[in-house]
Amino acid sequence: MRVGLIQTRTPATQAAALAHLEPLIRQAAGEGARLILTPEGSNLLQKDREKLLPLLKSVEEDPVVSGVRALARELGVEILLGSVLVKRTDGKAANRAVLIATNGEITATYDKLHMFDVDLPTGESARESATYEPGEQATIAPAGGTVLGLTICYDMRFPALYRALALAGAKIMAVPSAFTRPTGAAHWEILLRARAIETGSFVLAPAQGGFHEDGRGTWGHSLAIAPWGEIIGELAHDEPGVLVVDLDLDKVETARRAIPALANARDFRAP
What is the pTM of this model? Predict the structure, then answer.
């Protein structure tokens, strides 16, 4: 199974974001990827809430979603928009993954469960919950002839989510991200490898990278990790780019048989 991970430096409007994203998707498809994953915030990045909210559209009306659906049909590939920032039907905002089939139809969505509400030692702070409504439901979806577990960025710090997805049948964990630079340097690789090892799953983490129009900095370093924990592909920088890797899905069962942690786990009483 050949997959493509897109690393972006998404601009602050949907029109510019689509122009940035389209050639990278075309490149991945041209290199043979049949499933292509993009990062968190693929339709726009704008950390100023007052500027962001008026730009948000529903999934059906978002120009990046519409443009990528057309690309999926044209290129005959499945595309996971790792997340798009959209307006919900109740008028609130959501950070939402959107899985698109080869015919351009949306086959699954997932709203980010865990909000990044933090105060970092560097003085940087974030309050995602001030803008976005968290999701309520973990999500798996068929993709590329296997089962994909959908997560977004900060979710990676909550291993119970990945265990639940693996037990539900996921063999690949998608972790599209816009990781901060301080936490990326400290935790990005080790957290992703841990999620792969403990669930015996492939982990695919397409990332935002570099310094954006809205003033934020993101870590980049998109990663593809095998079920035994080894890195099988990396963009070792923060520039926009494409990473194409081949996945041997038999390695999932091999890893899970060797270390049956999913089967061996026991319920217990907390102290």
Answer: 0.96
